[in-house]
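Ops channel
N.P.: pipeline sanity check, posting one input/output pair.
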């Protein structure tokens, strides 16, 4: 199976369930194991997130702290993959920030994809991309000059026991990134630089 991000050939990594790309080192699920759209939506609804939940707000705090530190209320943002409970948008809007929400299932405002933004946030979203090549091209295109794409996802490295790693068990997680994969994305999609801080990954134009 070819990698859905860089289109290079991959090799079996975890039985026939996950493959690893020989070029960008991304881990991608065998397409025969993708769940259908209805099952995917049901899975997202199971999360039962609440925008007023302090624990949920703390979970997304690496993103909200970055935005509050590096952008002002008059900058325009997009919460891409905002989900059933757009907590990042709630926190930022409560502080006067101008941020819009897009989600293909729960806030499918496709007109927002034709606009430009100073920052785009993707919290626990990029691992769900069926077509990461298309999605990252779109995200890059929507950023203004000096803009930032701010992502949160768990990166895999060789210190993790993949067999017992819960992150891979979510049926909606179809693409898992490594440090080398982030390097590839930054280079291929023409970001000027990037930074990784644990689960927080920031690409800059």
């Amino acid at each position: 199976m070819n990698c859905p991000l860089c289109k290079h050939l991959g090799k079996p990594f975890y039985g026939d369930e996950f493959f690893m790309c020989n070029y960008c080192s991304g881990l991608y699920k065998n397409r025969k194991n993708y769940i259908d759209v209805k099952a995917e939506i049901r899975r997202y609804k199971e999360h039962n997130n609440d925008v007023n939940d302090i624990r949920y707000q703390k979970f997304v705090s690496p993103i909200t702290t970055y935005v509050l530190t590096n952008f002002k209320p008059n900058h325009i943002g997009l919460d891409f993959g905002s989900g059933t409970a757009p907590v990042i948008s709630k926190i930022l809007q409560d502080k006067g920030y101008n941020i819009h929400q897009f989600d293909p299932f729960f806030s499918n405002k496709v007109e927002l994809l034709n606009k430009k933004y100073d920052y785009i946030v993707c919290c626990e979203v990029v691992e769900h991309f069926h077509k990461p090549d298309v999605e990252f091209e779109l995200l890059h295109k929507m950023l203004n000059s000096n803009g930032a794409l701010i992502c949160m996802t768990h990166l895999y490295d060789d210190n993790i026991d993949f067999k017992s790693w819960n992150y891979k068990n979510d049926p909606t997680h179809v693409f898992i990134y490594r440090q080398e994969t982030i390097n590839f994305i930054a280079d291929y999609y023409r970001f000027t630089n990037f930074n990784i801080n644990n689960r927080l990954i920031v690409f800059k134009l």
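N.P.: looks fine end to end. The helical segments are 37-45, 54-59, 61-70, 87-94, 132-141, 179-188.
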